[in-house]
Amino acid sequence: SQQGEEDPQALSIQEGENATMNCSYKTSINNLQWYRQNSGRGLVHLILIRSNEREKHSGRLRVTLDTSKKSSSLLITASRAADTASYFCATALNQAGTALIFGKGTTLSVSS
Amino acid sequence: DVKVTQSSRYLVKRTGEKVFLECVQDMDHENMFWYRQDPGLGLRLIYFSYDVKMKEKGDIPEGYSVSREKKERFSLILESASTNQTSMYLCASSRHRNTEAFFGQGTRLTVV
Prior knowledge:
The structure holds 2 protein chains of 2 kinds.
Chain A lengths: L4 E3 L2 E5 L4 E6 L4 E9 L5 E8 L4 E4 L2 E6 L4 E6 L8 E9 L7 E2 L3 E6 L1
Parallel strand pairs in A: 2-11
Antiparallel strand pairs in A: 1-3, 3-8, 4-5, 4-9, 6-7, 7-8, 9-10, 9-11
Chain B lengths: L3 E3 L3 E4 L5 E3 L1 E3 L5 E8 L3 E8 L6 E2 L6 E7 L2 E6 L8 E8 L7 E2 L3 E5 L1
């Protein structure tokens, strides 16, 4: 059951540009989280946005959540080569006995 | 800092072998998870545990079992390894069910 789907699958930009990734999901959520994965490594948590929040910032990251459209976006401003990684959204459902469900990810390449 | 440690970075096993993947976390987290990650499929949940000796099936439990005898340790067992279980395996833990997950570095398992 793939709850979240990221879009686009791949994104290539130049350093200094902004990168926007989108995530759509299917059922109501408790919260939505974004993670980053450098090549061949584990995932690192970036930011969590609760279902009653609409926007959240953390450094160069800005996350929005639209529960009516069941979608979220992650904006990375002023991208750097070090931002090159895969980015995943994960949804936490309201149901007991469930775990975080991840999407397939967006691969971001930032060239200098 | 939370640390989640997986016992091996790389593992090569033969078809039919019984394989144990070990995961240890040092932050007294209630919840632990096993995911597998394959190109184009993202992260898929195999099993998770919300307490010692408790386990819940994820989306793809077939061919796997788990053990959680102590709070800090969550083991994934491949009863009889098959080539279609060649994958990257990621362990994670979280304090509560819907909170931030911390990941290990991953185990890349190859079954030949």
